[in-house]
Design a protein that fits this description.
This protein is mostly helical and 114 residues long. It has four helices and no strands. It is elongated and about 50 Å long. The termini are far apart.
Amino acid sequence: MAAPLEQGERDIAMSHLHATRKLFLDSIAGLSDAQWNFKPAPDRWSIAECAEHIAVSEDSIFDLLQRAVKSPAAPDKKPSAKDDFILKALTDRSVKAKLRNSSSPSAAGRIAKR
């Protein structure tokens, strides 16, 4: 069985989660409707669509983690990445990726209001 998270590891993860949530919410606080819905080009997302993507992606990642926690441990497998690498990779926006439809903003927008 895999070892559970140590308290220090859990504290670091929770601290990062709370800090990044605050940064995100602070970055969209006080936007006008025009700013919230502005699209710099037809093929670019508005801030509202980006916010929706983040919310949908977080739900998907949480579901994935829940399934991983419930599946049997595989102690013979080595972790494929270290924590620092994962944190850096998740926050690196230098490479644009094409998304599956489930992570793309909906036409009607699930996040209509902030």
